[in-house]
Design brief:
The complex is a heterodimer of chains A (161) and B (399).
Chain A: E1 3-8, E2 12-18, E3 24-30, E4 35-40, E5 48-53, H1 55-66, E6 80-83, E7 86-92, H2 104-107, H3 109-113, E8 116-122, E9 125-128, E10 141-147, H4 148-159
Chain B: H1 2-25, H2 29-40, H3 57-77, H4 80-85, H5 87-111, H6 116-127, H7 131-141, H8 149-177, H9 181-205, H10 207-213, H11 219-239, H12 244-256, H13 261-285, H14 289-294, H15 296-320, H16 325-334, H17 340-349, H18 355-381, H19 383-393
Helix pairs in contact in B: 1-2, 2-13, 2-18, 3-12, 3-13, 5-6, 5-8, 5-15, 6-8, 6-17, 6-18, 7-8, 7-18, 8-9, 8-17, 9-12, 11-12, 15-16, 15-18, 17-18
Classes of the chains: A alpha+beta (161), B mainly alpha (399).
InterPro entries (chain A): AAE_transporter, KhtT, KhtT-like_N, RCK_C, RCK_C_sf
Protein name (chain A): Cation:proton antiporter regulatory subunit
Domain RCK C-terminal (chain A): 76-160
Chain lengths: 161, 399
């Protein structure tokens, strides 16, 4: 891959990236931060503008393209990074989960995986700081804290893998 | 006091409307600002009995700040390293541009029976393309991502450097030399180059100073410190009969090495644009539309001669950059718009001592910029059709 960088006096910078199919991606970074992205099918044709992004959004999209995590938002599948290597994750308990019907103490999840259940979302209620005697039901959503590895172990135990 | 505030309010209100109209019809703001000044000034609004904006001291000073900031930004953007890195290509394209268009303007001036200094002023007016209009149109049309952007922007950089030297010389000719004889001329040139030389040395060795001036996180202080350096220096320059614009250019160059260039651009661009708008307005206020009628014939001649000349010089410049014929033509089209710097020269001419300098040249420059800013933008937008037309006109091609 070859990237050409050139100055655009009074405008900003231009990067031209050769793509495998012979076309070129052209990124114009304006001095005020806006990015314009163009595609040029071959050197003789005009650049066709694909899209433009403001500075902040461009950085976020860049982070996604790079494969890094950033500003995760709570949702069914997305974990939240608490800092360091600790995650806050949501784990659904399915109908056929081996821990459905057990109390937290019986399931022994914390000792086995290192991840702790800090809350249980059940229908519209939230059971905060559940104790060893709290029973897990099928359909619960467990809010779990632990390292990435702990959380992954936890997830597989709950899924019965 | 109330009258002054009301008048200034009128200026900004009219500019806001003109800016909205420009956005609406997709034209550059510069011609519309100038026309709005003409309409709101003494020659149109004043004639029909409406409240009008007069060409007073307040407006003149604000317009001066506009000139100073325009040139300050040029200096800020101007990089000696960049120029040196691309010197062979930029200077060849730039030299072709200067060698064709400047002498053409001077020749037209002489043919109109003007003096050397007057003809030199016209040369500058027809030579300098508008960085503001050209750059904006390049972005609007997406040409900025194409190969033609390099020679166009490179030529603009060369012109910017050229105008700094040109203004330094011409300002002393107009303000100092014209009626003081050869002796006076020598003295004013000596003062100009002495002052500018001293400033250049200060800029060259003043990086530490400029960095320290700007070492503040507070946005307001940052903006005020820049204005607090550039405006007084420009003022001293003008008081000495030296080009305030060139002084501002050098200060801009000084700040460009301070490591704060991007922050300056981000924070001061709106300030510059506001004052530049007032400058264009002020040019309009000082223009009597009847004078435009009076210079219609030379104006048409100048437009008809200088448009093809820019096309040719731009085309050659594109070929110097190894571009295809089609892209080279675009380089020519891309350099046609004239704007802010032609008007800066016109404002300078208006301070001269002859009737041609005080009336004819400013009126001609205003008419010229109005025509060329619009014609240039339209030519760029219709580049494909221009290309077809040229193909058809050219003998020996299959089209």
């Amino acid at each position: 891959m070859t990237v050409y960088e050139s100055d655009l006096p009074g405008v900003g910078k231009k990067h031209e990236i050769d793509l495998p199919d012979g076309s070129q991606l052209v990124v114009v970074t304006h001095n005020e931060g806006r990015r314009e992205v163009f595609l040029r099918a071959d050197p003789d044709t005009d650049s066709e503008k694909l899209f433009e992004l403001p500075d902040r959004l461009a950085r976020q999209v860049g982070t996604i393209l790079e494969g890094a995590y950033f500003q995760p938002v709570k949702s069914q599948d997305i974990e939240t990074l608490l800092g360091g290597d600790t995650l806050l994750e949501w784990v659904d308990v399915g109908e056929d989960s081996p821990i459905a019907g057990q109390t937290l103490g019986e399931s022994d999840l914390r000792a086995e995986t290192g991840a702790s259940v800090v809350a249980i979302e059940r229908d519209d209620d939230v059971i905060s700081s559940p104790g060893a005697e709290t029973t897990i039901h099928a359909g619960d959503r467990l809010v779990v804290v632990g390292t990435r590895e702990n959380c992954e172990d936890f997830q597989s135990r709950v899924e019965g893998a | 006091m109330a009258a002054g505030l009301l008048e200034l309010g009128q200026v900004f209100a009219v500019l806001a409307v003109a800016g909205a109209a420009a956005l609406r019809i997709g034209l550059s703001v510069i011609p519309l600002y100038v026309v709005s000044g003409m309409l709101a000034g003494p020659f149109v609004a004043g004639q029909v009995g409406l409240p009008y904006v007069s060409d007073g001291e307040l407006l003149t000073v604000l317009a001066e700040v506009g000139i100073v900031l325009l040139l300050f930004f040029l200096g800020l953007e101007f990089s000696l390293d960049r120029l040196l890195a691309a010197r062979s290509r930029i200077s060849r394209a730039g030299v072709v541009d200067a060698a064709i268009n400047l002498p053409l303007g001077i020749a037209i001036g002489l043919a109109l029976g003007w003096s050397i200094v007057e003809a030199l002023l016209l040369g500058g007016i027809v030579y300098i393309s508008s960085s503001a209009i050209v750059t904006k149109t390049l972005i609007d049309l997406g040409w900025i991502a194409n190969d033609e952007a390099d020679p166009i922007l490179g030529t603009l950089v060369f012109e910017d450097l050229f105008i700094a030297v040109y203004l330094a010389v011409v300002t002393s000719l107009v303000l100092g030399g014209a009626d003081a004889g050869l002796n006076g001329l020598g003295r004013s040139l000596a003062i100009a180059f002495g002052f500018l030389g001293a400033l250049l040395i200060a800029v060259q060795y003043g990086t530490a100073f400029f960095s320290r001036v700007l070492d503040v996180s507070d946005t307001e202080s940052f903006v005020l410190r820049i204005l607090g350096v550039v405006v007084p220096i420009a003022g001293v320059a003008l008081a000495l009969g030296v080009s305030e614009a060139v002084a501002a250019f050098f200060v801009g160059m000084g700040f460009s090495t301070s490591g704060h260039q991007e922050r300056i651009e981000r924070l001061l661009t709106p300030v510059r644009d506001v004052f530049a708008a007032v400058f264009f307005f002020w040019i309009g206020v000082g223009t009597d539309p009847r004078l435009l009628v009076g210079i219609a014939i030379p104006l048409v001649a100048v437009v008809l001669l200088t448009t093809p000349a820019k096309l040719v010089s731009g085309y050659v410049g594109g070929r110097v950059y190894d571009l295809s014929e089609r892209r080279s033509l675009r380089v020519g089209l891309g350099l046609v718009p004239r704007g802010e710097f032609s008007l800066v020269i016109a404002a300078l001419a208006a301070g001269g001592s002859t009737a041609v300098m005080r009336e004819t040249i400013p009126a001609l420059a205003v008419g010229y910029v109005l025509v060329m800013s619009v014609v240039g933008t339209v030519l760029m937008q219709r580049a494909d059709r221009v290309e077809e037309l040229i193909d058809r006109l050219r003998p020996g091609t299959s089209a």
